[in-house]
Amino acid sequence: MGDAARSGDSQEHTLSVIIPVYRGERHLPGLVAELAPLTETQRTPEGHPYRVTEVILVNDCGPDGSAGVIRELAEGRPWVRPVWLSRNFGQHPATIAGIASSSGDWVVTMDEDGQHDPADVGALLDTALRERSALVYAAPRNETPHTAFRNTTSRASKLLINMLSGGDADATKFHSYRLVLGEVGRSVAAYAGQGVYLDVALSWVADRVTTCPVTMRSEGDRVSGYSVRTLVSHFWRMVMTSGTRGLRVVSLIGATFATFGVVLAVVLAVDRLAGGNVPEGWTSTVVIVLLCSGLILYALGIVAEYIGVAVNMAMGKPPYLIMSDPQAGPLGRSGRGT
């Protein structure tokens, strides 16, 4: 594979690295220093040439001195590009802002805290070209360096999202260390609406999503910027943008209640005719309650479906995405034919 890649992949892949910055005052200089060698032409483990042409630092208005550090890092480094947000918007909006400002063939997103090793960028690119995938997530070989409670709840929430999305998005693959085809990433950044969860938006248009094994590094003494309230808000955003399948549960519950009401009415009527001891008025009350509540829930489910369609439109979920010929773009530089 290496020789074929070297002979058939002579055109260099350009990468834009996006780093949303909230509390990066202490960690940014070291991370940028690690990325500096990648601004010269490198070869992936399988022989594909690539180069980081820009490192976009998105200042998300954190409480520390990150803004000053970003300015210092940009001095004398033309490949370091600051992006200034007007206020704190959160990790996903900041990442989307960085993607919208990028220009590389590929976009790499990573955290500011040093958990993500820049040396794995080549392996991510190899996976994308080998699997012809427009979206590659890092798949940690080791346990993510968070508390056991946070790791457990994170896995449980992703499984719940998979159920709600109906298989449209595999949330178990979601990770903030990701490689995205630039054309896809910038298109998503262009149409993504307020409150959209980035990975869900990417799943709307990415034809093939793969993962690449990496080893996560420790955060060191950095205090996580995610409180319980922030994590719950993060989870709820993922729920709200994962599709309308959850709304259909309302219709299903309503139909179940109504059906149970009809069955119960038949059972009680037969029992009464057979001389059973059914309290006066109890049958009609229970049947009416079940039928009415079922019909109300079913009607609410229908209304919710219409709201879901409106929400999808408001979030900017596209009916389609027009792209150039993949063989003529970065995915065609894999050293093999279609």
Automatic annotation (TrEMBL):
<dbReference type="GO" id="GO:0099621">
    <property type="term" value="F:undecaprenyl-phosphate 4-deoxy-4-formamido-L-arabinose transferase activity"/>
</dbReference>
<keyword id="KW-0328">Glycosyltransferase</keyword>
<keyword id="KW-0472">Membrane</keyword>
<dbReference type="InterPro" id="IPR001173">
    <property type="entry name" value="Glyco_trans_2-like"/>
</dbReference>
<comment type="similarity">
    <text>Belongs to the glycosyltransferase 2 family.</text>
</comment>
<dbReference type="GO" id="GO:0005886">
    <property type="term" value="C:plasma membrane"/>
</dbReference>
<feature type="transmembrane region" description="Helical">
    <location>
        <begin position="247"/>
        <end position="270"/>
    </location>
</feature>
<keyword id="KW-0812">Transmembrane</keyword>
<keyword id="KW-1133">Transmembrane helix</keyword>
<dbReference type="InterPro" id="IPR050256">
    <property type="entry name" value="Glycosyltransferase_2"/>
</dbReference>
<dbReference type="GO" id="GO:0009103">
    <property type="term" value="P:lipopolysaccharide biosynthetic process"/>
</dbReference>
<dbReference type="Pfam" id="PF00535">
    <property type="entry name" value="Glycos_transf_2"/>
</dbReference>
<feature type="transmembrane region" description="Helical">
    <location>
        <begin position="282"/>
        <end position="307"/>
    </location>
</feature>
<keyword id="KW-0808">Transferase</keyword>
<feature type="domain" description="Glycosyltransferase 2-like">
    <location>
        <begin position="16"/>
        <end position="156"/>
    </location>
</feature>
<keyword id="KW-0448">Lipopolysaccharide biosynthesis</keyword>
<dbReference type="InterPro" id="IPR029044">
    <property type="entry name" value="Nucleotide-diphossugar_trans"/>
</dbReference>
<protein>
    <submittedName>
        <fullName>Undecaprenyl-phosphate 4-deoxy-4-formamido-L-arabinose transferase</fullName>
        <ecNumber>2.4.2.53</ecNumber>
    </submittedName>
</protein>
<keyword id="KW-1003">Cell membrane</keyword>
